[in-house]
Design a protein that fits this description.
Elements lengths: L1 H20 L3 E8 L4 E10 L5 E7 L4 E11 L3 E6 L4 E8 L2 E8 L2 E9 L17 E9 L4 E9 L10 E5 L16 H10 L4 E5 L8 E2 L7 H18 L5 E6 L1 H11 L5 E5 L6 H15 L8 H8 L5 H8 L3 H6 L4 E6 L7 H11 L7 E5 L26 H13 L2
Parallel strand pairs: 11-12, 11-14, 14-15, 15-16, 16-17
Antiparallel strand pairs: 1-2, 1-8, 2-3, 3-4, 4-5, 5-6, 6-7, 7-8, 9-10, 10-12, 10-13
Helix pairs in contact: 3-4
């Protein structure tokens, strides 16, 4: 009798544990917030003591592992609070879907979650084995005590001393050598395309990020990151393995490219979505475009933007606001390819390409182009909003890749 009772108790305990854990796992859904649709991912887990933990991801905004407080959790229901966002979610399990409501700042939105993570298709990401040679290297910025780790891609028809090579410089914020965002790897895609078309590249992890070591990050400005790039150019020239040595900079990297051009450090420049006017003007235009995409009618003047940010203790932002690229652009004498998309809301193309064209020294090889329907990442898009970056499968427009390779090969 006791054995039978013990067995029944075990079955009840096992059934109860399973029921309580049915809601465990990763749940994904689309939140329709009016002006935009955001992917929401909620993680639920029971530990061995029966305690429930949860966290939230907003992958379209690049946010992950946001702590969530579990207010209630049963075999088929859950309620969580995301204090950092002033938000909450409550839902009930029906079949293999949680039907619920997401609340934030007094607004309620329906949110239905399906089990599992959203699988992203990135067809342009190359896979090994590559048809060309790669080499892992390091170079040093002695001034800032930074050791930068990167990858050289040698093209399939590499010729020592003749093949052109290009240093690739990422945009603002610490990024790896692929400039990876939302599982897009634009620098890897570009390096792969160029290697298959006779052009070598060196891309590297930003200081104190990835495999790179050292270098102050907290107080670093664009000028400091430019010294890292200059060290990369010096390294490439010291190897004596290549012909012309150029630089490709994206966004902030575009400013760095012109800084190197002004110092006559490179043979050619590709500026992808680089700025052409003063930093405060760039950021004001960016803010106004973001408000427009969000359906707001308010617009800021440059003075208002500066007042709003004057108390932010950010050395990088303070430098960027006051940085005017005009002098560096005007001092650049090497061939320049300056490109952007007309849907770029981070660096408004019409404003910045005009600034570059106005200040750039005339050169028969200069190539300035605004591509239709491309965003800041040079993806074909609808609005250019940040929320689209992740949902778009394309990483870099094939037309842009083709134009870059053709332009470099046309240089004499």
């Amino acid at each position: 009798m006791n054995k039978i009772l013990s067995f029944i108790t075990f079955l009840l305990f096992a059934t109860t544990s399973y029921a309580q854990n049915r809601i465990d796992g990763v749940w994904t859904g689309k939140l329709n917030a009016g002006a935009q649709t955001l992917t929401i991912v909620i993680h639920v887990n029971h530990d061995s003591n029966g305690n429930t933990t949860s966290s939230l991801d907003s992958p379209d905004q690049g946010a992950s592992d946001i702590p969530a407080k579990v207010d209630y959790c049963s075999s088929d229901s859950i309620a969580i609070s995301i204090t950092n966002l002033g938000a909450s979610f409550k839902g009930r399990l029906k079949g293999d879907e949680i039907n619920g409501e997401f609340s934030q700042m007094g607004y309620n939105f329906p949110l239905n979650l399906k089990r599992g993570e959203e699988k992203l298709n990135r067809p342009q990401n190359p896979t090994k084995p590559y048809p060309y040679k790669t080499e892992e290297v390091t170079f040093t910025n002695a001034t800032d005590k930074a050791i930068l780790a990167g990858t050289i891609c040698y093209p399939t028809n590499y010729q020592k001393g003749k093949t052109p090579v290009m240093l690739m410089v990422t945009g603002s914020g610490l990024e790896n050598r692929d400039e990876e965002v939302f599982n897009h790897k634009p620098f890897l895609v570009i390096a792969d395309y160029l290697a298959r078309n006779g052009i070598a590249t060196l891309r590297y992890d930003d200081r104190s990020f990835g495999e790179s070591k050292g270098g102050d990050v907290k107080n670093a400005t664009t000028k400091d990151f430019a010294r890292d790039a200059e060290a990369g150019i010096t390294y490439l020239k010291s190897t004596k393995k290549f012909g012309k040595v150029g630089v490709l900079g994206h966004s902030e990297g575009g400013s760095i490219a012109f800084m190197l051009g002004a110092k006559d450090k490179v043979d050619f420049i590709i500026s992808m979505a680089g700025i052409g006017v003063k930093g405060d003007t760039v950021l004001t235009a960016q803010t106004n475009k973001a408000m427009e995409l969000a359906g707001q009618t308010k617009r800021l003047t440059t003075l208002q933007y500066r007042v709003n940010t004057m108390f932010q203790k950010s050395p990088w932002l303070n430098y960027f606001i006051d940085y005017d690229p005009a002098a560096d652009i005007a001092a650049t004498r090497c061939p320049v390819m300056a490109i952007d998309g007309d849907k770029d809301f981070q660096v408004i193309s019409s404003l910045n390409l005009a600034g570059i064209k106005k200040n750039l020294h005339e050169n028969k090889y200069n190539f300035i182009r605004e591509y239709p329907s491309l965003n800041h990442l040079f993806q074909h898009c609808t609005t250019g909003a940040l929320s689209e970056y992740r949902s778009i499968e394309e990483t870099v427009s094939p037309e842009v890749l083709s134009d870059m390779a053709k332009w470099i090969h046309a240089l004499k």
